[in-house]
Amino acid sequence: MDIIYEIRRRHSVQKQTITAIARDMGISRPTVRKHLNTVEEPKYERLQPASPKLGQFAEQLTQWLLEESKLPRPRRRSAHRLFEGLQEIGYIGAYDSVQRFVKRWKSGNTGPKLTEAFVPMLFQPGDACQFDWSQEQVELGGVFQTIKVAHFRMAYSRQMFVVAYPREMQEMVLDAHSRAFAFFGGAPARLIYDNLKTVVDAAESMGSDSIDI
Fold it and tell me: 43 lies in a domain?
């Protein structure tokens, strides 16, 4: 042990007295005398490792971390505050052990990653109407045919209007809008479309600047 070497060095090299060594090193004179008279260095059995593990306190710390993971981030305790909490219930180990435990726990318990985000869309009455085409199979005169169906839906009330046509052409687009406005009792402030070629052509022919593509 370093303390034994230091005591012997002071006594043998610096010629300090037992009283002086005890005073300078802050130990008792019997301790100094014992180390000077000991032939073999004493062997010590460490009761705890140099970096004490949390042991029985790990369960309590895990419970705290689980509880606080459900709280808003500003309300969660830091590793140091958790360490202080453990000290209050008897933990005498090092802060580093708590800090490492908390870091490992958080790295493995971050929860599911956010893969999708949804932004709610709010509309005012009469603000917007959504339009799209669908392709359907119908039987006309005993013959199965493919038709195009124009769908209108008011964004606020979700009220719908549907009208079918044999083809998807500019004339059908214009007629569908005329019928939809008559059904709704007026035109919305905005019309929302997918990127449809017939709609774009119709908008250009009408010279409209109120259409959202």
Answer: no
Given a contact cutoff of 8 angstroms between Cβ atoms, the answer to whether 131 and 160 are in contact is: no
Report pTM.
Answer: 0.40
Cα(210)–Cα(121) distance, rounded to whole angstroms? 19
Strand partners, 133: 150
CB-CB contact of 210 with 191 (8 Å) = yes
- Ranges of beta strands (E only) in the chain are 128-140, 143-154, 160-165, 190-193, 211-212
Q: Does 174 fall in a domain? A: yes
- Region 169-197 average pLDDT: 86
Report the number of distinct structural domains present in the chain: 3
Q: Is residue 179 part of a domain?
A: yes
65 plus 24 within the same structural domain: no
**CA neighbor of 5 nearest in space, from 17, 27, 13:** 13
Same domain, 64 and 22: no
In a domain, 17, yes or no: yes
Distance CA 90, CA 68 (A): 21
Which residues neighbour 134 within 8 Å (Cβ) at sequence distance 6 or greater?
Answer: 148, 149, 151
Query: What is the residue range of 77's domain?
Result: 57-108
Q: pLDDT tens for residues 94-130? A: 888 888 899 988 887 765 555 555 555 678 888 889 8
Cβ atoms < 10 Å from Cβ of 80: 12
